[in-house]
Amino acid sequence: MNWSPENPPTAKEIAAKFRSDIVDGVYGPGARLPGAKGIAKKLGVGLMTVQSAYKQLAADGLVVGRPGSGTYVIDPVKGEPTAQQAAAGLRDLQDQLKHVTSQLSDLLERVARLESERRPDRTANSR
After folding, report:
1. Quick check: pTM over 0.70?
2. Opening angle at CA 63, ends 56 and 13, nearest 5
3. Fewer beta carbons within 10 Å, N or C terminal of the chain?
4. End-to-end distance of the chain based on CA atoms, in angstroms?
5. Are the C-beta atoms of 8 and 45 separated by less than 8 Å?
6. Residues 6+ away with beta carbon under 8 Å from 82
7. Is the distance from CB of 1 to CB of 13 less than 8 angstroms?
8. How confident is the model at residue 10 (pLDDT cuts 50, 70, 90)?
9. Whose CA is closest to 18, among 90, 66, 93, 75?
10. In 10-127, where does DSSP find H-type helix?
11. Sign (positive/negative) of CA torsion 7, 11, 16, 18?
């Protein structure tokens, strides 16, 4: 990701980066994510932006916040998927959604083109 002070990341982008890091094993089960204040300063964003990213990860079931201690990658119960597996599944779903969205967009363009070709030329009928 190419972030700069002129182009700071959104909470969604920050969450995606950490999600990817969890998939890649940068943060394994039980690992503590960097403090939100430090990340905010490093990225040039507000603290609330990083906190929102961490909340997104928690909503995905990847991390848990421990007040006064930090945010940790969930260490799964036996038989449950690891955060790494869950994040990989989410990434796969995002990729599939992008593909389906692209296909729908193509279909909409084709339908619009077909409909415009089927419309009779009203100027020819008015003569």
Report:
1. no
2. 35
3. C
4. 60
5. yes
6. 29, 74, 76
7. yes
8. very high
9. 90
10. 11-23, 36-43, 47-59, 83-118, 122-125
11. positive
pLDDT at residue 106 is higher than 80 = yes
The token duo for 87 is: 């994040």
Q: What is the predicted pLDDT for the residue at 2? A: 67
Instruction: Look at residue 37 in the predicted model and tell me its pLDDT.
Output: 94
Q: How far is residue 75's CA from residue 81's CA, in Å, rounded to a whole number?
A: 9
According to CATH, what is the number of the domain 11-119?
Answer: 1.10.10.10
Residue 29 has what pLDDT? 87
What is the predicted pLDDT for the residue at 40? 94
Which amino acid, one-letter code, is at 9? P
The structure tokens 């002129």 sit at 6
The letter for the amino acid at 56 is: Q
